[in-house]
Write a structure and sequence with these properties.
With 489 residues, this protein is an alpha/beta fold. Helix 9 (283-292) runs parallel beside helix 10 and helix 14 (418-425) packs across helix 15. The two termini are 37 Å apart. It is elongated and about 80 Å long. It has 3 domains: 9-179, Rossmann fold (3-Layer(aba) Sandwich), CATH 3.40.50.1010; 190-264, no CATH class; 295-488, P-loop containing nucleotide triphosphate hydrolases (Rossmann fold, 3-Layer(aba) Sandwich), CATH 3.40.50.300. Helix content is 31%, strand content 19%. It has helices at residues 15-20, 37-45, 52-67, 73-78, 111-114, 119-136, 165-173, 204-208, 283-292, 310-324, 351-355, 360-369, 375-388, 418-425, 454-462, 480-488; strands at residues 9-13, 32-35, 80-81, 99-102, 157-161, 177-179, 197-199, 212-217, 220-226, 238-241, 247-256, 259-264, 299-304, 330-335, 390-392, 406-411, 433-438, 468-473. InterPro entries: P-loop_NTPase, PhoH, PhoH2-like, PIN-like_dom_sf, PIN_dom. This is Phosphate starvation-inducible protein PhoH. Residues 135-154 are annotated as: Disordered. Keywords: ATP-binding, Nucleotide-binding. In the N-terminal section; belongs to the PINc/VapC protein family.
Length: 489
């Protein structure tokens, strides 16, 4: 929702807003919405296909059809009341009270023809300029002027809402207010995103020594801690203490606002605790392996830049739990193919063979994980064993499926929208674990940003759930060359 506190607005929507979020029609509270005719034409042109954008366009058309149900020409001219439809009425803290207007006449001044650039954008700009001109026209006495439609009420501001930066720039040049659509923005600043880790103060034990109970259970060490420090902790948040008395633990339970149970973290840095031959190289990787190897966590998210070890750690933990411990039946590896949701055809072979060109990261990490003794024959045997328990799937065919006792790795998750992320996570059946990997600084999907990415969305929404974990990996471990390049270039 775009907030305006000073006055009511008439928001002129660009097509990409509706393609991005079909429910945008219901997100403007008391403000009115105006749809230029070119927007309806672009929606009609984009309705065909199996992509996520095409599905969104069809959903918008259904919404408009329901809102226009049984409306005559006079009602359309006066503006259709916007009300949340039955299936989408849930989740609205403030039901919309504005009206929906359609362009029914050509602008008196054909501004679009005189502007450079694409015709569709210029039509929207021309329509906004015409509305602005009507707003600025002095109001005539009722006996001298015909009754005006609510869309031309003089107290309303005209604002273009678009995900297209260039259109917003052109609007600013022409003196038209323009804003981005930010209803799906999870956070105001990506730096506020939950990192999954907190540093304890140096005097933590001095302040809490009297309020600590410690015990061991099945080889695991637990502490019950009470005090004000507990207030800001989340379940499964990673805690660490710097200095000579290094301490690493995971919050396991919050019994109240001031009491929590924490567990001493397993140390996966030592070789005897390796996971499929892989040991952690830093604190964040150690916490990541603790989460990946925890059967009580059904959903784990790993954020980090290139070279921090996200894919390698997730694969190693998956192989250890599929082949060694038998917790899951197989690993399913998938990733977003950009453009998202488009057909992966034009490549020969099965679904898995078509996805192979997108799975370079998987193949590279498998080379590391299958470096066993025994020469070429031993490596080939290990390779066959591993590949038989890993399946590569396309996101295109996830709808309607249910995965039972699977270990699912979703790579490049930052390129998914919140809606796509929900579609994928709800595929999980009993005994399935989902691991989402991504770097929100490298988003390739149009109109997604660090604060609106589906990966950011799930990190923020799952931080309170007791069966999920998150950690942000900060230190690159690929090589000294890659580490230096990340900081210097």
């Amino acid at each position: 929702m775009i907030k305006r506190e000073s006055d009511l607005c008439l928001f002129v929507l660009d097509t990409n807003v509706l393609m991005h979020d079909p429910t945008a029609l219901f997100r403007f509270k008391e403000h009115d919405i105006y749809l230029p005719m070119v927007v309806l034409e672009e929606l009609d042109a984009g309705k065909k296909g199996l992509s996520e954008v095409a599905r969104n366009v069809r959903q918008v058309s259904r919404f408009l059809d329901q809102l226009m149900s049984d409306a005559d020409r006079d009602e359309i001219e006066a503006g259709l009341p916007i009300h949340p439809l039955s299936d989408y009425g849930r989740g609205f803290t403030e039901p919309p009270t504005g009206r929906l207007f359609f362009q029914t006449e050509r602008p008196a001044q054909p501004v679009a023809r005189t502007l450079p650039g694409t015709t569709a954008d210029n039509d929207i700009l021309g329509t906004a300029l015409e509305l602005q001109r009507l707003e600025q026209r002095p109001e005539q006495a009722p006996e001298q002027a015909p009754e005006q439609a609510p869309a031309q009420a003089p107290e309303r501001s005209i604002v273009i809402v678009s995900k297209d930066i260039n259109l917003r720039i052109k609007a600013a040049v022409l003196g038209i207010a323009a804003e981005d659509y930010s209803n799906d923005q999870v956070l105001d600043d990506v730096n506020l995103l939950y990192t999954g880790m907190a540093t304890l103060p140096d005097d933590f034990w001095e302040h809490n020594a009297k309020e600590v109970d410690a015990w061991k259970e099945e080889g695991r060490t637990f502490y019950r801690i009470s005090g004000p420090d507990v207030t800001d902790w989340y379940v499964n948040e990673c805690l660490h203490l710097e200095g000579d008395e290094a301490f690493e633990a995971v919050v396991r339970d919050k019994r109240s606002e001031t009491e929590a149970v924490i567990e001493l973290a397993e140390d996966y840095r030592v070789q005897r605790h390796n996971v499929w031959g892989i040991t952690a190289r830093n604190r964040e990787q150690n916490f990541a392996l603790n989460m990946l190897m925890d059967p009580d966590l059904d959903f784990v998210t790993l954020l980090g830049s290139a070279g921090t070890g996200k894919t390698l750690l997730a694969l190693a933990a998956g192989l250890a739990q599929v082949l060694d411990r038998g917790r899951y039946r197989e690993i399913i590896m998938t990733r977003v193919t950009v453009p998202v949701g488009e057909d992966i055809g034009f490549l020969p072979g099965t679904e898995e063979e078509k996805m192979t060109p997108w799975m370079g990261a998987l193949m590279d990490n498998l080379e590391v994980l299958t470096q066993t003794e025994g020469g070429d024959w031993g490596r080939a045997a290990t390779n066959d064993l591993v590949r038989n328990r890993i399946r590569i799937s396309s996101l295109n065919f996830m709808r309607g499926r249910t995965f039972l006792h699977k270990y699912i790795i979703l790579d490049e998750a930052q390129n998914l929208t919140a809606k796509q992320m929900k579609t994928l996570i709800t595929r999980a059946g009993p005994g399935t674990k989902i691991v989402c990997l991504g770097n929100i600084a490298q988003i390739d999907t149009p109109y997604l940003t660090e604060t609106t990415s589906g990966l950011t969305y799930v990190v923020d929404r799952f931080k309170d759930w007791e069966h999920s974990g998150h950690i942000t990996l900060r230190r690159g471990e690929r090589s000294r060359l890659a580490d230096f390049a990340s900081g210097a270039l």
